[in-house]
Amino acid sequence: MAELLRATDWSATPLGNPSLWPHSLRTVLDAMMASGHAMCLAWGPSRTFLYNDAYVPMLGARHPRALGARFEDVWPDIWSEIQPLVDRTYAGETSTFENMPLTMTRNGYPEDTWWSFSYSPVRDDDGAVAGLLNVTLETTGRVVAERERDKAVLQLERNEAKWRTIFETLQEGFILAKLLRDGEGAVVDWRYEEVNDAWYELVGIERGCVIGRTIREVFPGIEDGWVRDFANIAEAGEPVRFTRQVGLLSRWYDGVGQYAGDDRFTIMFTDVTERVLRERRQTALIALSDRLQDANSAQDMALAANVLVGETLGVQLVGYGNVDADAETVAVERDWTMDGATTLAGTLQLRDFGSYVDDLKAGRTVVISDCRDDPRTSDFARALEQRHARAFVNTPIIERGRFVGLLYVSTGEPRSWSEGEVQFIRDVAFRVRQSVVRLRADEQEKVLNGELTHRIKNTLSVVQAIVTQTLVGKAEQRAIDEVSERLKALSAAHDVLVNRSWSAAGLREVAEAVLLTIARGRILLNGPEVQISSRTAMSLSLLLHELATNAVKYGALSVPEGRITIAWAVRDGEKGCVLDMSWSERGGPRALEPERKGFGSRLIRMGLTGSGGVKLRYGTLGLTVEMSAPLSHVQQG
């Protein structure tokens, strides 16, 4: 998919040239392409569709033409069902669904499918929702399997003559058990009366050693819920579906328990450990994104990831550190430990623990199931075990071909790491590094903006001083004051734009910055949030300053009871949205049209974007100014 993404001509799509894509789009796209989980992304108002390799099988025959198409064109057969979810996501909501049924024609014929997925809003560089990220898992196989299992149970109830055949051929585990009660009639245990071969395979116990024994004898210390919940079956007389862990086996089972009379019950179950752990990892990745968004420092980000990985994988030690590839050292500020593991905080020499540092420098994830058996670590096993790293995964962070960071996960006992676990660790490492890079970029931007503000203010001060000195004795003091006030208005607009990184500013924010010192409490601003470009912000600041100055001299602000209302709204026009804005003075003297049209009048008539669209009405109630401009012009450049 990465190759296909690069080979696609994006100029023919709403996304345009990839070199002009926003940072936010590139970041989420990089994360999606690097992930082993099935993901797709809809971006922009046109909902342009992108997806990763893991998502390809879900498209069937629609791949690869789905890449770059509109979301609704990719899935027209289910669009009526998912459109409300898409709309809510673009409105800022996150939606999560489990086993949602959808009828698809992805391979040219209708298919009944089921999906567990989450729709999460993705925000652009300005914080507005610009897209939708879908992390999805097709559960058709599991749902179909559950339905088939339920059909088998129903068949068992309807036709007892076929019970033995079904019993002997079931791939699911089957149990026939009898409740055991104490002298007061309370259930305290239950005894196995029959199990099938699949039970032994799913539980991992030698065949023929369970019949006649109780569950507490077979599994000493098993959770009380395995007795209590099945006692409830006899009392309720209703089937009970369960998904439960046997902690001693570290396995999860999903099944149905049903009362069989005379204090007996049956259980049909299957091993769903991989499914449960996979869903946990997916949930953890979603939670990590939220935690990284809220973190205010690189250390907070690393700690959030460490805690989440440790709790999700059930390990003893997780840490993230910055690497000096030349010195072959890793510096760890703080890591996460459990069950008495010793922290690795500080600076460590990587080669003190094995030769696998060469793999890390080459960008390869190191997976060790037992440090005693791996040739890269066997000579260093004692040092590793002292640090609770009998088994571990080390994921390198590579930037521009250089080894710069390391996420390490370890446990004090041998462990076979699954592909899903290793991919999960890689995903976490990638997301943490991307978040750290973003945070540092934001910090650098703040420093640069601060320096830019300082220099521009100094420049405006110099300009103001030059103008004042140049015009002294050559122009009226009023003219000098007008130039100075206009420079101050520009400075106020500049402050707003710097706070917004010069990308855009709020109309209300610009107006408040310009008018705050002129007439606090006497000017009412009324309108929705509208983002305007830096060029429009400069024009608007000068226009509002000119109107306010005239109001102080001749209009509503020249008397104590005078008031001004500035209102704006966006409406649909023939060629797109239009921004309407009005300035209304009330409570002041009658407004008279000036006999002489100076620079200030020309400035007002230039309007919101410098191209006109202004109507002035001079009346007995006061001055009214109406301005209009295409919203696209207001928000451009």
How are the SSEs placed, and which strands pair?
Elements: H1 2-7, H2 23-34, E1 39-43, E2 48-51, H3 56-59, H4 71-74, H5 79-90, E3 95-104, E4 111-123, E5 129-138, H6 140-158, H7 163-169, E6 173-181, E7 187-195, H8 197-203, H9 215-218, H10 225-236, E8 240-246, E9 251-261, E10 264-271, H11 273-294, H12 298-313, E11 317-324, E12 329-332, E13 336-337, E14 346-349, H13 357-361, E15 366-368, H14 381-386, E16 391-399, E17 402-411, H15 419-471, H16 477-499, E18 505-506, H17 507-515, E19 523-526, E20 531-532, H18 534-553, E21 563-573, E22 576-586, H19 599-605, E23 614-618, E24 623-630, H20 631-634
Parallel strand pairs: 19-21
Antiparallel strand pairs: 1-2, 1-5, 3-4, 4-5, 6-7, 6-10, 8-9, 9-10, 11-12, 11-13, 11-17, 12-14, 15-16, 16-17, 18-20, 21-22, 22-24, 23-24
Helix pairs in contact: 11-12, 11-15, 12-15, 15-16, 16-17, 16-18, 17-18, 18-19
Description:
The structure is a single chain. With about 625 residues, the protein is an alpha+beta fold. Helices cover about 40% and strands about 25% of the residues. The chain is built from 20 helices and 24 strands. The strands form five sheets. Strands 11, 12, 13, 14, 15, 16 and 17 form a seven-stranded antiparallel sheet that branches. A five-stranded antiparallel sheet has the order 2-1-5-4-3, sandwiched between helices. Strand 23 (about 615-620) and strand 24 form a beta hairpin. Helix 11 (about 275-295) packs antiparallel against helix 12, helix 11 (about 275-295) runs parallel beside helix 15 and helix 12 (about 300-315) packs antiparallel against helix 15. The longest helix has about 55 residues, at about 420-470. The chain is elongated and about 110 Å long. The model has no long low-confidence stretch (mean pLDDT about 85).
